[in-house]
Amino acid sequence: MSDVEVAAGGEPIERTVLQRLLGASTVWIGIVLVVLCVVFSVIRPDAFPTRFTLQTLLIETSVLLVLSVGMTFVIITAGIDLSVGMVLIFAGVLGAKSMEWLSPNADATGAGWGVIAVGLLLSLAGGAGWGLLNGLLVAKAGIPPLIVTLGSFGAALGAAQLITGGVDTRTVPEKLRDSLGFGTSLGGVPNLVLVATAVTVLAAWVLHTTRFGRHTYAIGSNREAAHRSGIAVTRHLVLVYLLTGLLAGLAGFMNLAYFGTTTIGGHGTDNLDAIAGVVIGGTSLFGGAGSIVGTVIGVFIPSVLKKGFVIAQVPVFWQPIAVSVVLVAAVWFDQIRRRARDRK
Question: For residue 333, which of 7, 29, 6 has the smallest C-alpha distance?
């Protein structure tokens, strides 16, 4: 065997690459997703592997994927954000109300692109504001992220209810619904999916190729070591939570465009769904490990399970049970991997 064919430790390169491939959680999670798709396609070949099913699955997952991308950054730093679902609601309310306030008779149905742009900016600002508050309290005040974001969870929902009086806003511009909500481009790809794809690709580039991404991993692996190496840990954590809030604001505007209402009562589990998708995708709750690709796969596993159960006419009560089993299995696999790494 030539030198080129032997790795530095004396093992064949082919074997080393295979071991790394098999040890990558993303690969196994991807296999699980493929198996689920195959199983449901066999059970209902007339319904599951269709263009309509795929399109609706992608649309329904787009908003959650944007939330989960932000959550990936937070969890890699060994943090958590329980507030994203309620921040989504607050941002949607702020965007919808601002468009109403700028429209005649408080009816934004016929509003133009200028009003829509203001609504988008205020949705983003509203989400970023909550993210900045979370980051300052976690990084500067030293309050545990679980407590901070749990408080923001209730405060953001309460603020949204105060603004609306607890009643959903339903006068959403038709131009927004026809373009972002139900519009398609590139031969039939929903615009919501294109937005989520752009966010995901940009986030993957930032996390895996830039200094910001490297610092995110470093802080999650060892916060003290990151500080000693010259990383501005406090500033970086504030920016990470700010990013998460900003993406929650974008998700709120996307949700508004799709449903045509603020859906105040419809996002009680979005935070847990986002966390589940990220963790199932291989991001460690202990920090320092994870990927955007894994998050994409992880988000689609619960979505495919739910869609498949509906198509296969499995009772709806089995859906949370199945997702919970997959989530616990993912965390268990992560712990096994960490123990194996620590023994080396």
Answer: 29
CB 152 within 8 A of CB 83: yes
Confidence at residue 214, expressed as pLDDT on a 0 to 100 scale: 93
> What value does the mean pLDDT take over residues 124-131?
96
- Cβ(99)–Cβ(105) under 8 Å? no
Adjacent-strand bridge partners of 190: 184
Measured between its terminal Cα atoms, the distance across the chain in Å is 28
Look at residue 108 and tell me whether its pLDDT is greater than 90: no
The stretches of the chain forming alpha helices (DSSP H) are 13-23, 25-43, 51-76, 84-101, 113-135, 145-164, 174-176, 191-209, 211-221, 223-228, 233-259, 270-280, 292-311, 318-343
> Between helices 145-164 and 113-135, what is the axis angle to 10°?
150
Cβ–Cβ contacts within 10 Å for residue 145, how many? Answer: 23
Q: What local confidence, expressed as pLDDT, does residue 7 receive?
A: 41
Residue 19 has pLDDT above 90, yes or no: no
Mean pLDDT over all residues of the chain?
Answer: 86
> Quick check: 236 and 207 in contact, CB under 8 A?
no
286's CB contacts (< 8 A; 6+ apart) are: 78, 220, 334, 338
pLDDT of residue 270 exceeding 80: yes
